[in-house]
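Here is one chain, start to finish.
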Amino acid sequence: MMTNFDIAHLRLHNQGLSELRFEDPVDIVSELDAVEAQDYAGAKWALGQRIPNATDASIDQLFNQGKILRTHVMRPTWHFVAPADIRWMLELTAPRVHAVNAFMYRQLELEKAIIKKSYAVLEKALQGNQHLTRAELASIFDKAGIAAEGIRMGYFMMSAELDGVICSGPRKGKQFTYTLLEERVPQVKMLKRDEALAELTRRYFATRGPATLQDFTWWSGLTMVDAKKGIEMVQSQFVSEEINSHTYWYVESELPEREKGPTAYLLPNYDEYFIGFKDRSAIGEVAERAGIKGDDPALIAHIILVDGQIVGGWRRTLKKNAVLIELNLITSLKKAENRSVAEAANRYGKFLGMQVDVAEVD
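Its structure:
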């Protein structure tokens, strides 16, 4: 039977961390279904360490060109999505996100009529491949007689993203913009609902496995009924194993050989290696011994992995010519493990094109 260390090791492989299988950031976004991008800088690094020679600037360029999109899909948060996938993913998962948002729609008095009016305002303001910031659009809403301050504006925009009216446009400096989805993304053949459900499920277990039904339901935002149906449609492509009273699904293959020495990663907040699972115990054995539980907020912050296990957290501070990386370890590391963490920090510096200074927090 697989151990937690086996599960963690296989996930590192399947997610393209321990073996760099992709050359193009767009390919890895598509293969992973979507990549959580609530923190844009962190999401870029999530892609960067899965692709040889990727840089922060190169991913910015792809984003500004519209080859990688950032929109609300699956859960009430932003994800990177490939243009070829955005429409069928929205059609499959947006109804569930709207259902989750229903309480806030009522609290903010976002009735169907006012939402429909907001879509008309967006379509008029953005037509002709225009791209505007949220603040610019809020001003246009105000002139159209739509109150859209603060969080209310956020839910107007999320609803429009979920309904495929708008998606991300190129950035203006450091500001995000919105543009019309129909103008930003070429039309591609749509998947029927069952085809979309099967494709979402297949990609999830191919890249997150070993994983459980509960993991997939949490990550996708789908109902348990749909998640079970998805597994039934693709189960012939996977094997299952009972581990600790839970059924795990994964691609049948030999476990990749482990590295001879320790391997470390500095993962960004919301990296798919851990945000893609409801149960994170397989990567939290060291953390558990340190008294940190799987639902601890620390486990969605920037984390340090050694051989697939969480051994601490990290934060970055950008200076003029360097990036300061501060390590907050929850366990003592051996000399070889410390060396591997330093190598991971240097990879991040190379990604940013900056010198790296590393300090350990007492």
